[in-house]
Amino acid sequence: LSSWFPAVTTPPSLYALLPYCGQSSSGGSVTVGCLDSSYSPDSAIFTWRSNEQLITDQVKTYPPVFNKNGLYTLSSQLTIAEYQLDNIHCKVAHKSNTWPPVEIPIPVLYTKQPSVYLLLPSAEELSAQQSFTLSCLVKKFAPKEIFVEWTVNYQSIDANKYKNTEFMAESTDYSTYSMLSISAGDWDRGYSYSCVVGHETFPLKTLTRAVNKSSGKPSFVNISLVLMDTVNACQ
């Protein structure tokens, strides 16, 4: 006797498929996938997007598989440069809109802990000007989700008092810097200024660098565990 299944409508369950930990990439590229599991009826369509832009190159979608339970499974894969694997989403929809589309993000694989530098003006600038600028350079990090803010005497400074630049992309990494204008009077009074950086690769999630007139150079704050190797995303 042949098996018979009633016509049912079952929305899919969508899963991201990632390379196993330690898998080497080919020419800096990586292959990720999406698995559309247990849906019915057939005629599902996969699409891939990066920052809301449709991706059509290096996409391979396999024929659907009919399972013994009467439901279908469909898979698709995308090969992309590792440094571009940021804000990638896969989406599955039904040709007849039988069930609502389902979309999921692809987790970021590549991470790198930033280096943070607090830069001071020259001694001549410090002595000659009524105000000057502190700069906080945050260099070579991934993914690009990060926050940079400033404090004075450990109190938050309003965001409109400083300027964070746009991200600068360097191959697989990003860099940015922030500039804070301060008065020479507050500096002479010994006010302490700190650049606070938050990134997922820091064991304590934030890194703070502080400076004041008496220190004469930037100081480390709460970073005894930060000087470790880049956090491995596979951990």
What would you say about this model in short?
The protein is mainly beta and 235 residues long. It contains 2 helices and 19 strands.
Report on the architecture of this protein.
Pfam families: C1-set (PF07654). Keywords: Glycoprotein, Immunoglobulin domain. This is Ig-like domain-containing protein. InterPro entries: Ig-like_dom, Ig-like_dom_sf, Ig-like_fold, Ig/MHC_CS, Ig_C1-set, Immune_Resp_Modulators. With 235 residues, the protein is mainly beta. The protein folds into two domains: 93 residues, Immunoglobulins (Immunoglobulin-like, Sandwich), CATH 2.60.40.10; 97 residues, Immunoglobulin-like (Sandwich), CATH 2.60.40.10. Helix content is 5%, strand content 46%. The strands form four sheets. Strands 1, 2, 5, 6 and 7 form a five-stranded antiparallel beta sheet that branches. The N terminus and C terminus are likely disordered.
CATH superfamily caption of the largest domain: Immunoglobulins
Count the beta strands. 19
Query: Can you give the mean pLDDT?
Result: 81
Major pleated sheet: 5 strands, antiparallel
Distance between the termini: 50 Å
Helix percentage: under 10%
Outline type = elongated
Structural class from helices and strands?
mainly beta
Total helical elements: 2
CATH class of the largest domain equals Mainly Beta
Features:
235 residues; mainly beta; Immunoglobulin-like; 2 domains; 2 helices; 5% helix; elongated; disordered N terminus
Secondary structure layout:
Layout: E1 13-17, E2 29-39, E3 44-50, E4 53-55, E5 59-61, E6 65-66, E7 72-81, E8 88-94, E9 102-105, E10 115-119, H1 123-128, E11 131-141, E12 147-152, E13 155-156, E14 162-164, E15 168-170, E16 173-183, H2 184-188, E17 193-198, E18 206-211, E19 219-221
Antiparallel strand pairs: 1-2, 2-7, 3-4, 3-8, 5-7, 6-7, 8-9, 10-11, 11-16, 12-13, 12-17, 14-16, 15-16, 17-18, 18-19
